[in-house]
Amino acid sequence: MRSIQKFFLLSVILIIADRVQSQSMADIFRLLPEDCTPDLDSKQRDTLLQIGKYVLPGGDSSETIEYELDSSGFSDYIYFVWSFTTGQRGFIQHELRKFKKNDGGTLIIYSKYGGTPVGYDQRELIIFDYKNNKLTINKKNLLPKEIPITSFLKPNTPSLVVKKIQNEFSSCYHLNPENPKTITFEISPYITNDDEEKYIIGYTIPFVWNGRSFTRKPVKD
């Protein structure tokens, strides 16, 4: 009888522990440092979570800013966008994604990129460990903060072509919730002719999570 009671108690403890670690992405969003949403206090974050939009007060016909938030139906992913509803076309895209670790812990990736639709770049990439309802920065070099354009070009690419593409390309991390255990670093170069394009070997570098680290895969289209 005691063994059954012990088994039942252990099962309850494991269920509770799993629920604690399986905190929703909305709760993770609330835990983000203030720098990740500099315009929003805790009440405004809640409004954004509840409604999916929040317009910053004080806007006018030439400049009104809003946040939009969505999970796209994924339990381990959420994104929110800072953009203008009037006037300018600039934007800042924020993405959050959760990964399970082999030791039972949880890894949270925060990615921020922005600019304009024709020119944007990675602004920030922060990796957190989640434990005991807290986010702490993971100091391991799990993902490169920057990837040079030469990683996407053939070894014999002329220096003038490298320089031109380097001066006119967009790049960022995409956390790709539809792709299990994989995120990607992607480029969008401004190509003016086939002579330049022939030196590009691909536009995407996948990084696959194995429960302990990310494995960098070869460049692909």
Describe this structure in words.
With 221 residues, the protein is an alpha+beta fold. It has one domain. Strands 1-2-3-4-5-6-7 form a seven-stranded antiparallel beta sheet. Strands 8-9-10-11 form a four-stranded antiparallel beta sheet. Strand 3 and strand 4 form a beta hairpin.
Low-pLDDT regions: 4-22
**Shape from CA axes?**
flat
> How many individual helices?
5
What value does the Rg take, in angstroms?
21 Å
Work out the count of structural domains. 1
Q: Reading side by side through the largest sheet, how are the strands ordered?
A: 1-2-3-4-5-6-7
How much of the residues is beta strand, in percent? 35-45%
The helix content is 10-25%
Q: Average pLDDT across residues?
A: 88
Spell out the helices and strands N to C. Answer: HHHEEEEEEEHEEHEE
Number of strands: 11
Query: Which secondary-structure class do the elements indicate?
Result: alpha+beta
Question: Termini distance?
Answer: 61 Å
Could you give a short account of the major beta sheet? Answer: 7 strands, antiparallel
Task: Please render the helix and strand layout as text.
Layout: H1 2-21, H2 25-31, H3 42-51, E1 53-55, E2 63-70, E3 77-87, E4 91-100, E5 106-116, E6 119-131, E7 134-137, H4 159-167, E8 169-174, E9 182-189, H5 194-197, E10 204-209, E11 214-216
Antiparallel strand pairs: 1-2, 2-3, 3-4, 4-5, 5-6, 6-7, 8-9, 9-10, 10-11
Give a quick precis of the structure.
The chain is an alpha+beta fold. It is built from five helices and eleven strands; from the N terminus they run αααβββββββαββαββ.
